[in-house]
């Protein structure tokens, strides 16, 4: 009897520990409605090699990119005010390039239907060009970059009353700017590569009467030699996970351990999944009602910056933070010598 009771006690202790590990945590405010200079369409959170964090919709302008950390200020203004920037990714510079160049970043311009390349020179000159463009693009949304090959994977979505296959997809841009569509899908948004760049994650959503009815994350194998994808596999179906298919998947980022962090636009949450599909952590955003995007940055590259519409003022963009134990994939690669 004592042995049975002990076994039950040990089982309950283990169960309690597992549940405790999955308890909700809450992010901390970084920019509030009172001090933010970003508009409600804040998006495209990105990091450079110094751990600086950037996002779009600065001063409520779709063509403006602002710096979030270490200080809030204008970073870049497009030479075309019809631009509407979304996803942003910084490129890794060689030692020789750093002699004349401060930084190079790519930005998805959904209104001009292209991926824009911006080079900031040490002499303060700026060069803005089209990196890649294709007739098949559907409002380019977010970007995932292969730092080893220079290839760019692009998501996109045409938000209609009722989603049809072909309202989104997956595109590939080669380092020389040549683009091609790899897949035709429903609305695609969040996109990320694993730290070893052998796995691509991509979200897909469908809606009916403007209401999301399906939100899934797909997992693909990536051929590192030619960039092609294969072995499409369901990673997460939110209808099966927690019946939250009504909340769109938005930004996705990996940390150096290969965990996938996902924002739920419409649910005010950020979820952390292991590479083997286990839900490890659920974050409730303190002051963001629609979590749009996220990125790891800061001094050690382990501070998670989360952006989205402010709960208390939907006309403004707020930023929350969460301290992780490990840095993000992008920061780790950009700072690697």
UniProtKB/TrEMBL annotation:
Signal peptide segment: 1-20
Task: Please give the Gene3D superfamilies that the UniProt record associates with this protein.
Answer: TolB, C-terminal domain
- SUPFAM superfamilies tied to this protein: Calcium-dependent phosphotriesterase
Q: Which residues form the SMP-30/Gluconolactonase/LRE-like region domain?
A: 120-307
Q: Which domain of life is it from?
A: Eukaryota
Q: Which UniProt keywords apply?
A: Hydrolase, Signal
Task: Tell me which InterPro entries the record gives.
Answer: 6-blade_b-propeller_TolB-like, SGL, SMP-30/CGR1_Lactonase
Among the GO molecular function terms of this UniProt record, one is: hydrolase activity
Q: Which Pfam families match?
A: SGL
Which PANTHER family does this entry report, sorted A to Z?
LACTONASE DRP35 (PTHR47572:SF4), LIPOPROTEIN-RELATED (PTHR47572)
Name used for this protein in its record: SMP-30/Gluconolactonase/LRE-like region domain-containing protein
Species, as recorded: Gigaspora rosea
């Amino acid at each position: 009897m004592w042995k049975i009771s002990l076994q039950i006690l040990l089982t309950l202790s283990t169960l309690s520990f597992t549940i405790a590990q999955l308890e909700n945590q809450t992010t901390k405010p970084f920019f509030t409605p009172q001090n933010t200079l970003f508009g409600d369409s804040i998006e495209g959170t990105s990091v450079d090699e110094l751990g600086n964090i950037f996002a779009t919709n600065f001063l409520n302008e779709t063509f403006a990119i602002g710096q979030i950390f270490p200080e809030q200020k204008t970073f870049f203004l497009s030479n075309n005010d019809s631009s509407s920037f979304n996803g942003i990714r910084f490129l890794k510079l060689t030692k020789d390039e750093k002699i004349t160049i401060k930084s190079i970043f790519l930005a998805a311009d959904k209104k001009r239907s292209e991926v824009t390349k911006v080079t900031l020179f040490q002499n303060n000159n700026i060069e803005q060009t089209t990196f890649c463009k294709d007739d098949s693009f559907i409002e380019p949304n977010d970007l995932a970059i292969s730092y080893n090959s220079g290839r760019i994977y692009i998501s996109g979505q045409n938000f209609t009353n009722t989603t049809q296959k072909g309202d989104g997809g997956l595109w590939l841009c080669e380092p020389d700017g040549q683009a091609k569509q790899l897949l035709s899908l429903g609305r695609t948004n969040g996109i990320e590569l694993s730290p070893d760049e052998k796995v691509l994650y991509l979200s897909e959503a469908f809606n009916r009467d403007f209401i999301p009815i399906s939100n899934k994350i797909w997992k693909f194998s990536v051929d590192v030699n030619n960039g092609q994808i294969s072995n499409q596999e369901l990673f997460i179906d939110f209808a099966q996970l927690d019946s939250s298919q009504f909340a769109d998947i938005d930004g996705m980022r990996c940390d150096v351990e290969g965990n996938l962090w996902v924002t739920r636009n419409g649910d005010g949450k950020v979820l952390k999944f292991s590479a083997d599909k286990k839900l490890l952590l659920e974050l409730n955003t303190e002051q963001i009602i629609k979590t749009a995007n996220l990125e790891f940055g800061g001094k050690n590259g382990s501070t998670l910056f989360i952006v989205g519409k402010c709960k208390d003022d939907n006309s403004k963009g707020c930023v929350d933070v969460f301290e992780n134990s490990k840095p993000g994939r992008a920061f780790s690669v950009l700072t690697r010598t």
